[in-house]
Amino acid sequence: MTRLASVYPLVTTRALARPFTYEVPDGVEEGAVVEVRLGGARQRGVVVETGVEAPAGVETAPVGRTVDTIPSALVELALWIADYYGSTPGRALALVAPLKRARRAEKPPPGLRESLPGEPAPERLSPEQERAVERIVSGLDAGSGENVLLYGATGSGKTEVYLRACEAALERGLGAIVLVPEIALTPQALGRFHARFGDRVALLHSGLSDAERRDERERVATGDARVVVGARSAIFAPVRGLGLVCIDEEHDASYKQDSDPRYDARTVAAKRAALEGAVAVYGSATPRPESWERLERIDLGGRLGGSLPPVRVVDLRREAGYPLSAPLLAELGAVAARNGKAILLLNRRGVAPALHCRACGRTRRCGQCDVALVLHADGRLRCHHCGYSEPAPETCPDCGSAELARLGAGTQRLERELETRLPELERIRLDADAVARPGAAAAILARFAAAECAVLLGTQMVAKGHHFSGVDLAAVIDADTGLGLPDFRAEERTFQLLTQLAGRSGRDAPGRVLVQTFQPDARPIELAARHDVARFLAGELERRRALGYPPFRHLVRIVVAGGEPEQPLQALRELRDALGDAEVLGPAPLLRLRGRHRAQLVAKTEEPRRLAKRAAQLLAAASPAMRRAGLTVVVDVDPQSV
Ligand SMILES: [Zn+2]
Ligand SMILES: [Zn+2]
Asked: Which of 146, 156, 375 is nearest to 279 (CA)?
């Protein structure tokens, strides 16, 4: 008798988002990745069920060869992602069954190239670390899919807890996945995993070549590598017998994917842990309110062998000299005098965020997006939304005046000011412009690690988990940059950024932190200056409870874009009325992007899947009309920015 199986072809077309029935030979089971013929073309497909019956009147065809096999837990995980995030099974299965490239000659694994020497293993753990490891190991042994929050200040030894938990998993014959926000920015953490586990570590991230990724996945699939370290997508690594998932810097927004399927690796980690009976450990010095409210908390306490540095707030309404105020210059001068190191954060690239004409008052803007063009050191104006650039004009293109003012400051201007004011300090810049080449980030961080009398300056990249010895000053040039954003997470982000940056100073010496701001009384700034995480989160949760924001309700964001300003708003008004009972904010117009007018609806709901499904049905019904009108739509469940 012919054996039949349900197969999802790995295609993106929504019209083909259903299983097809094929004949399979013996030995082909759930999780097999097979070649199939579909509409005359050859596709890959994933077997999701065997022993099915053919629908009436359907003539089945045999599958081609089996090209890969993925664990059945990953099949289940992908189908859940497709449902929860309103994507398609084909797109979600492609995450767990990526295309395999041809084999390449033996080459060393990429891990070493990406890593910097990390701290050596401590002789013994602190009592808090001991307790944390014990708690996680009890979860490993229970195998019941628990989630815990590992909360501890920067420098409290979270990485060592991950390492010990991974060791315990390996001793039990289990595998582990360690997620980090941006692997290029964490070469030191990687170095520690290499030093501890050698070639039992596999590295998975988007910076690898296709061949490298294939080799690393294969080492994981065969069980040669039992510990996977990687960015967001490493949550789909084909680890068999998964016992542990660690999510480092769990507050980091890069865990959310911003293209379909719009999954959040933190939510997916909890689901995968539940499916496989693994422990998920969420670690941060500045946890999300969501995790603070919901997860069992393991408190690692303060910094090992020291206290957090004092923070001085500089009121920019009273101090002249922006971007370098007199108190900051004095601190930097002291750093230079001691041959020390400093880290400066300015969360804007370029020279000046706007070029403004003093005569006619106009600011040069992007023709396609509703934002000002940013002046860069190469003499060009660039749009940070769409990438458009043009030479900076000598005179105002509107009125001809030569009085063009450079408003505000970006990292490149800060670099120049430092060169003029404190030439004895070596300047090392870390921002998206500086790390455009692969490997550039690790080289920049290595240079700063080896430097004496140097300042690392850059965007929020400088605040990510680095650990450099000898940093005795960390400063924020303007702490309020992010507070003006119309996003309910603006305060949380500002608090996290300031607290994380403050944690870079004084890890092995008494350090100082200086925060320049125009709003010294703003809650996130005041509380970050006191390192008061608990108080900030308590207030944040109170506010979110009152307003019905996460974690008390889920958000579903629907964005429509079109060629005319009114169309997206109109389409969303119709959708809002059809959604009926749900609590919906908007529609509100958004900034124009790449010439497209955009608007959004934000729904607050206890049942995000039901709401997203309802919205998807309504949008599917409206889709011919929307297509004719040139409108596109995105539905985002649990968005990270609104
Ligand atoms: Zn002008
Ligand atoms: Zn633009």
From this structure: 146
Please enumerate in sequence order all residues whose Cβ is within 8 A of that of 171, keeping only pairs 6 or more positions apart, or say none.
none
Rounded-to-integer distance, Cα 199 and Cα 323, Å: 46
Tell me the HSE value of 458 on the side-chain side, using a 13 A CA sphere.
21
Q: Of 358, 372, 367, 432, give the one whose Cα is nearest residue 401.
A: 358
Cα separation, 524 vs 492, whole angstroms: 7
For residue 33, the surrounding DSSP H or E stretch is: strand 32-38
Among the listed residues 469, 503, 470, 505, the one whose alpha carbon sits nearest the alpha carbon of residue 118: 469
- Structure confidence at residue 106 (pLDDT): 59
Reading the block at residue 74, the tokens are 């990953």
Where is pLDDT greater, at 581 or 238?
238
C-alpha of residue 565 to centroid of ligand 2, in Å: 17
* DSSP codes, 581-597: TSEEEEEEEEEEETTEE
Distance between CA atoms of residues 335 and 113, nearest Å: 32
Contact between residue 96 and residue 77 where contact means Cβ atoms under 8 Å apart = yes
Nearest ligand to the CA atom of 395: 1
- Tell me the C-alpha distance between 9 and 400, whole Å: 59
The predicted model gives 268-293 an average pLDDT of: 97
Closest CA to 543 of 589, 485, 491: 491
How distant is the alpha carbon of residue 150 from its chain centre? Answer: 19
| pTM (two decimals) | 0.91
Check: CB of residue 119 under 8 Å from CB of residue 467.
Answer: yes
Tens of pLDDT, residues 325-365: 999 999 999 999 999 999 999 988 988 888 999 999 899 98
Residue 5 Cα distances to 15, 19, 27, 148, angstroms: 20, 9, 12, 39
The DSSP bridge pattern shows strands 279-284 and 227-230 to be unpaired
The mean pLDDT of 443-455, rounded to a whole number, is 92
**Model confidence pLDDT, tens digit, residues 150-176:** 999 888 899 999 999 999 999 999 999
Q: Is the backbone of residue 567 left (phi > 0), alpha (psi -120 to 50) or beta? A: alpha
**What was the pLDDT predicted at 108?**
63
What is the Å distance from ligand 1's center to 150 Cα? Answer: 55
313 in helix, strand or coil?
strand
Ligand index nearest the alpha carbon of residue 404: 1
Nearest ligand atom owner, CA of 390: 2
Cα(478) to centroid(ligand 1), Å: 28
3-state secondary structure 66-124: EEEECCHHHHHHHHHHHHHCCCCHHHHHHHHCCCCCCCCCCCCCCHHHHCCCCCCCCCC
> Strands 61-62, 20-23: parallel, antiparallel or unpaired by DSSP?
parallel
Among all bound ligands, the one having the nearest atom to the CA of 355 is: 1
